[in-house]
UniProtKB/TrEMBL annotation:
Its EC number is 3.5.4.26, 1.1.1.193. This is Riboflavin biosynthesis protein RibD. It comes from Croceitalea vernalis. The lineage of its organism: Bacteria, Pseudomonadati, Bacteroidota, Flavobacteriia, Flavobacteriales. PANTHER family: 2,5-DIAMINO-6-RIBOSYLAMINO-4(3H)-PYRIMIDINONE 5'-PHOSPHATE REDUCTASE, DIHYDROFOLATE REDUCTASE FAMILY PROTEIN (AFU_ORTHOLOGUE AFUA_8G06820). Pathway: Cofactor biosynthesis; riboflavin biosynthesis; 5-amino-6-(D-ribitylamino)uracil from GTP: step 3/4; Cofactor biosynthesis; riboflavin biosynthesis; 5-amino-6-(D-ribitylamino)uracil from GTP: step 2/4. Signal peptide: none annotated. Keywords: Hydrolase, Metal-binding, Multifunctional enzyme, NADP, Oxidoreductase, Riboflavin biosynthesis, Zinc. It comes from the Bacteria.
Length: 350
């Protein structure tokens, strides 16, 4: 690992501090180095706040050092006015002579314009250091910009014999939740919820489990709730309508929605390409990442249309013998680990 890669790796480490709070902005990390010593660091503030480059520059106690420093950043500095001024202008105004960038920003308002502005001001710019690692880190933002949809994570838990729920009669006789995983796995799921911008379930999951779909066993923001309710059969008695969290209900275009405050209704045609239409709606709402928690029909719809990026599958020790079979999925194995007596497998869509 050379010196540029060393400092870019530190940028990626810093950037992870923004997970769950910066979206729809990318979570960027920035490091300022002078004479091979870090003099400033920063990462993207929660949405609407300063970007990583601003925070890094502001953290430098002796600003005179900036004139002979190198700025390392995971993503091309912005060049346009949004909620904050352009970072490239700030870099130029501080006469930072060299900028090392992991990845060019594909956003149409940036897309090389930040790099061009820096170079035209006489700044030396190096691009593509740890590019693959930066692409992996910025996967949510890049998927949103390049594919015009959120980064999609499928998640479910299945019994040791491959069922995600016991048979219907057993559930009716005993409607209490059938926990497949242990408390540690369930806490991890709440951490994941805090990291993603939205969470999605279908009608049957709401009917049977009446979930809140919020963050309880972890610190962080609760994601936007996205509910697929084609025929609008769900009612205000369900927890998803408590109006504590932004909620989007996706229904068939022929079903008439009753307007409610803080509930957004979006219509699609359930005749074909349901998930593609759903993704277009989420793109319109600037949702860069989505975790799909079920149920079986909903999960399988994403798999069948091949619109997913990552699947996180828990396997517990319980045996159901009969019931609702887990979704069928194939992909590239990324990791498999034990969480006490549970096994968590993560695969990517290849």
């Amino acid at each position: 690992m050379n010196i540029d890669e060393k400092y870019l790796l530190r940028c990626i480490q810093l950037a992870k501090n923004g997970l769950g709070s910066t979206a729809p902005n990318p979570m960027v990390g920035a490091v300022l180095v002078h004479n091979n010593e870090i003099i400033g660091e920063g990462y993207t503030s929660p949405y609407g706040g300063p970007h990583a480059e601003v925070n890094a520059i502001n953290s430098v106690s002796d600003k005179s050092l900036l004139k002979s420093a190198t700025l390392y950043v995971t993503l091309e500095p912005c060049s346009h006015f949004g909620l904050t001024p352009p970072c490239s202008d700030l870099i130029v105004s501080n006469t930072i002579p060299k900028v090392v960038i992991g990845l060019q920003d594909p956003h149409k308002k940036v897309a090389g314009k930040g790099i061009a502005k820096l170079r035209s001001a006489g700044c030396e710019v190096k691009i593509g250091v740890l590019e693959n690692e930066c692409r992996e880190h910025h996967k949510r933002f890049l998927t949103f910009q390049e594919r015009k949809r959120p980064y999609i994570i499928l998640k479910w838990a299945e019994s040791s014999d491959g069922f995600i729920a016991p048979e219907v009669l057993k559930r009716k006789n005993n409607p209490e939740p059938y926990w497949i995983t242990n408390i540690h796995s369930r806490q991890l799921v709440h951490q994941w919820r805090s990291e993603e911008q939205a969470i999605l379930v279908g009608t049957n999951t709401v009917k049977e489990d009446n979930p809140k779909l919020n963050v309880r066993d972890w610190q962080g923001n609760s994601p936007t709730r996205v509910i697929i309710d084609a025929n609008l059969v769900l009612n205000s008695e369900h927890n998803i309508f408590d109006k504590s969290i932004k909620t989007i209900v996706v229904h068939h275009h022929k079903a008439k929605a009753k307007k409610q405050t803080k509930i957004i209704y979006e219509a699609i045609d359930f005749g074909e390409n349901t998930i593609s239409q759903l993704c277009s709606i989420l793109y319109k709402h600037h949702i860069t990442s989505l975790i799909v928690e079920g149920g079986k029909k909903t999960l399988q719809s994403f798999i069948d249309e091949n619109i997913w990026d990552e699947a996180r599958i828990f396997k517990g020790t319980k045996v159901f013998e009969t019931g609702l079979k887990a979704p069928e999925i194939t992909g590239e194995l990324i990791s498999s680990k034990k969480i006490i007596n549970d096994t968590l497998t993560v695969i990517k869509n290849d």
